[in-house]
Amino acid sequence: MRTKPIRFLLTGGTLALIAFFAALFFLPKPQGTGLTVNKDVPFYSMPWNDNPFFPGLINTADGKMLDGANVPSAEFCAQCHEKEYREWASSVHSDTGLDLLYDTAANNNEVAHKNRNGLEKTRWCESCHEPVNLLRGEVNPLAVVGPSQAAKEGTTCVVCHTAVKADPLAGNGAVTLDLNNLNNYNEALIMAAPSEHARNMQSKTHNPLMGSSDFCGACHTEIRPVEINGGDPLHLQSTYEEWQKSEYAEKNIQCQDCHMPPDPAAFIAELNETGKTPKRVVSHRFVGVNYLLTDPTLPSNLTTFLRGGLPPGGISLDEWKADLLEQQRLTLDLIKSAATLSVSAPASVSPNATANLDVTIVNSGAGHSLPTGALDQRHMWLEVKATDATGKVIYDNGWFDEKTGKVDPSAVIYIKVLVDKNDDPIYEHILFNVKSYSYTRDPIPANASDTIPYAIPIPADAQGTITVQTTLWYRLALQEFVTYSLKLDMILPPVMMAQNMIEIPAK
Fold it and tell me: Which among 159, 185, 146, 154 has a CA at the least distance from the CA of 35?
């Protein structure tokens, strides 16, 4: 009787186990890679204390600086996570540092305090916008660190996926990252133990912080430290607190629920219709309100210019434009899902009389105030336009001049007015120079409303039925910032948030 040869049937799991033990014995053990100021990062300026990241509040778990060579880039992650990479690459999170609007504003502030540690003060900004750059020591008067691919990627994958702690009320990037103790960052180790890699690159399953508004709040709370320009801490952005005080927080609806589904506007519509939180499905597009950086139809490759260059590696220009088009659609839909308008008007009106009406804006779709964010730039306003039966415009309050970018100065507008020590308004986001601020009209909290009365004079020669169109407009930045800081020969257009039309018959 012949003896059958012994065959070793190596299953995928067996191969993985062999690879894991091979990696365990033959690859170097993961070591802390943090760098020490002065010893490893020489000539590093720390004007205020021994925290190298101050006045930003981002930190590492061991308190040390990063070795940029040991920080995996998003392109590295894309080898296995192409879908997530493509979603992220079209988002504004991939562009938080190279974004020309941000970069210009940061430079404006640095120059404004050039002889007063201006560059070091921008660590307050970079804590959220260019965290890898800051953590590795690049925000320094002297160039003391080498290049790093991950440092060019804004809020790159590992910035979120290594977070272990967040303080949303402190804000200013108050997130602790365990980047200096990255385990399983090696192709062989990842293949050998993917579940261990998943734990280290923590999803919400492994770390509840990833699905919590606390995480988002650490950057979406902005408080200017006294070290910037003296005085008291200046609260400039309070999106997290707005959410915290809302019914959304009471119902456990987190920032990620509305901003990370594949279609945020559809999520909000279902939430409003059913009153129940839809099933959570995650996309890495991080849809927000920046309709400028997501618009690939701008002329002369302006989008590429505004985003600081060509798309990340591995994505063709045509693919990127297609991704941006989808990002733009989702962004505009989200903006339109935030508010509703209603109008209370008289049953009829006569020529040579006054039509008194009330316009009510309802914050019906945002889990925070409207507007929110950097409100010295981001703003919304009402336009009320009345025409008679012949189409003649008899009243237009809140007009927008497409040739100059100006908004009717008599419009009902929601914006934060910053002033400097001379009480002169600051139009170009130079936050380092702000002495105080005031609102032209208070932002509208979540699920709240604001009613504005209008008195429309009806001319004696007005014909027939009066049609009143009310529009709530949103704009990303002031025209002064575009013209004088960005130095662009373009008019930044607003986008429509909501619209309502009624007819008032003639008596």
Answer: 146
The letter for the amino acid at 364 is S
Query: Given a cut of 80, is residue 487 above it in pLDDT?
Result: yes
Which candidate, 100, 160, 108, places its Cα nearest to that of 131? 160
Outline where DSSP puts E strands in 124-261.
163-166, 175-177, 221-224, 234-238
Residue with tokens 């609806």: 253
Structure tokens at 199: 């734990």
* Whether pLDDT at 19 is above 60: no
Percent of the chain residues topping a pLDDT of 90: 80
3-state secondary structure 335-370: HHCCEEEEEECCCCECCCEEEEEEEEEEECCCCCCE
For residue 402, pLDDT beyond 90? yes
Task: Report the mean per-residue pLDDT for the chain.
Answer: 91
**What are φ and ψ of residue 156, in 5° steps?**
-80, 170
Mean pLDDT of 69-96: 92
Task: Tell me the average pLDDT across 44-73.
Answer: 94
Cα–Cα distance list, 281 to 192, 340, 445 (Å):
28, 26, 27
Please report, for residues 265, 266, 356, 373, the alpha-carbon distance to residue 335 in angstroms, rounded to integers and kept in the order given.
8, 12, 29, 14
DSSP H helices, 185-230, are 187-192, 194-200, 213-217, 226-229
Q: Is the distance from CB of 346 to CB of 355 less than 8 angstroms?
A: yes
Domains, the chain, ranges and CATH? 12-212 (no CATH), 235-336 (no CATH), 339-504 (2.60.40.10)
- Does residue 67 carry a pLDDT above 70? yes
Phi and psi at residue 360, in whole multiples of 5°? -115, 125
Neighbours of 155 (CB within 10 A): 23
Angle between helices 264-274 and 317-336 (to 10 degrees): 30
Are 216 and 174 in contact by the 8 Å Cβ rule? The answer is no
Amino acid at residue number 180: N
Integer-rounded Cα Rg, in Å, for the chain is 26
pLDDT digits (tens, 9 = 90+) for 84-97: 999 999 999 999 99
Residue 175 CA to residue 58 CA, distance in Å, equals 5
Structure confidence at residue 184 as a pLDDT band (50, 70, 90): low
CA–CA distance, 471 with 246 (Å, rounded to integer): 26
Distances (CA, A) of 189 to 32, 156, 197, 206, 282: 17, 21, 8, 19, 26
Q: pTM, whole model, 2 decimals?
A: 0.92
User: What is d(CA 172, CA 26) in angstroms, rounded to the nearest whole number?
Assistant: 42
Strand-strand pairing, 413-414 and 416-419? unpaired
pLDDT tens readout for residues 301-334 = 899 999 998 887 889 989 999 999 999 999 999 9
